[in-house]
Every structure is written in C-alpha cells, then in structure tokens.
C-alpha cells in the first residue's frame, strides 16, 4: 500500500521563491517547473494565500517518477503599495498515489490518513 511509504522529494524551479516585477497594472505570469524526484507516482496540488490576486494553472495533477510539469503562476493587476502582499505565497502539496490508481488526479488522496508533504514558495514583489 503506497500510503505507508512517505512521499519522496520533488524539485521546483525556482527552488525557494517566485518574483514578480513592476509594473502591476497588468497580469503577470511566471512558470514553475515541478519534477517528481521520487520512485513513485505522486498526486500534487497547489494552493495560494491570495485567491483574488494569484492563480495557478494547472492547479493539480499527477506525475510519474522523474516526470515534470510546467505550472503557470499568474498575478492579476493590483495597486502595489496599497495592498498587503507580505503573506503572499503558493504552496505545493504532494502525496503518493494509491497502488493501481489511474493517472488522474483525485482530491481524496489528500483527505485520507496518508502522508502529505508540502513546500512553500513565497511571492516577492519588486517595485
């Protein structure tokens, strides 16, 4: 049963943060590469702390071992300096898929008692 083995590592490029540069009067999109470094198939899902400003596409998926995906993180136009951006971040969560599961993302993988790992990528806004 896959759930008894902790999920392995993933790699993200960039590895520690996402940077958006001014001006902020138009939508910006930044691409993240997510690589499954483990030996098992994983399901992954992104969350954001600010749903109205930050979007992620695709927001979830499945990666086989050593497979990668390109994810678009977008930042909608906003009034820089007039809104609180200190806590903005995207978080990727991942877990092993059950043995024999189809390669189609299922939210319930994250709701059972299997181990879920998480990586935070803070958003930095350059004026």
Structure description:
It holds the Pfam family Motile_Sperm. The chain is mainly β and 127 residues long. It has strands at 10-13, 18-21, 28-36, 42-48, 54-57, 60-63, 68-75, 89-96, 117-126. A five-stranded mixed beta sheet has the order 2-9-8-4-6, with no helix packed on it. Strands 1-3-7-5 form a four-stranded antiparallel beta sheet, with no helix packed on it. It starts with 9 loop residues before the first strand and ends with a strand.
Specify the oligomeric state. single chain
H/E topology pattern:
EEEEEEEEE
Class by helix and strand content? mainly beta
Mean pLDDT: 94
Q: Please estimate the helix content.
A: under 10%
Number of helices: 0
Strand order of the largest sheet: 2-9-8-4-6
Measured by DSSP, the beta-strand proportion falls in over 45%
Distance between the termini: 49 Å
- Evaluate the radius of gyration: 16 Å
List the topology elements.
Elements (H helix, E strand, L loop, with lengths): L9 E4 L4 E4 L6 E9 L5 E7 L5 E4 L2 E4 L4 E8 L13 E8 L20 E10 L1
Parallel strand pairs: 2-9
Antiparallel strand pairs: 1-3, 3-7, 4-6, 4-8, 5-7, 8-9
Task: Summarize the structure in short.
The protein has strands at 10-13, 18-21, 28-36, 42-48, 54-57, 60-63, 68-75, 89-96, 117-126. With 127 residues, it is mainly β. The strands form two sheets. The chain has a five-stranded mixed sheet with strand order 2-9-8-4-6, with no helix packed on it. Strands 1-3-7-5 form a four-stranded antiparallel sheet, with no helix packed on it.
